[in-house]
Here is the input.
Amino acid sequence: MTDRQPSFTTSLISGGIAGTSVDVALFPLDTIKTRMQSSQGFIKAGGFRGIYNGLAVAAAGSAPGAALFFSTYEAMKGELVERLGEERAPLAHMGAAATGETVACLVRVPTENVKQKVQAGLFPTARAAGSSILAAQGPMGFYTGYGTTVAREIPFAFIQFPIYEAMKKHWAAQRAEPLLPVQGALCGSISGAFAAAVTTPLDVIKTRLMLGDDGAGGKYNGLVDTGKRILNEEGAAKLFSGIQPRVMWIGIGGFVFFGAYESCKDYLMTREEQ
Here is the structure.
């Protein structure tokens, strides 16, 4: 695994392949997590039935979302490390990851809005969910929860990517040679699982906002209102609903994601050199 800066095209292609690999392979865990976080409760939201509902829309959005993230992340990382210096590399990784997540959410949030409504059994198909959102709220309805998603993704990225980059650097220094893609994948898995556990409350709030109904016929109103209502009405433990499948999904997914990304990146960079 090389430490050279990949080109924009290499990052774009590698990120797209990595994102699709994870979302398709681990989709059932994402569905279970969504249903556990739903205000209806796990069983009413579908239980273990139809755990692949919404897969098509997730697959359609995963490649462009991941591609946008990594192309932005790699470009910003190189620029920020150069400006801030190697001694402030963790700050550069945080800034690059935050920028990448903000851009990627332009694709990720509309996909999530449709996908989660299908996963929770609110609509039978992605087409029906999309049509309902458009009719009720117009095009901007697809961006319900955008601010909350970004508010979840930025802390996640702040935690995951400095740990990921530091682990890779430390391990490579111990080996006195670049890491293999599988070793980079392990770093991504560990850092992702830890970040997933810490940011679960934000994920619960994001899910509730996207699903809309609070379970009593009312609506949630923004990040703070949703968090307070869950805390007051259902207890603090509810903010950690779905933590097990979320940590498992992102832990395993991090291994697959970063493994696919690093492998594809190395292959494409080698081809560029030839």
Remarks:
- The chain has ten helices and no strands.
- The mean pLDDT is 88.
- The CA atoms of residues 94 and 158 lie 5 Å apart.
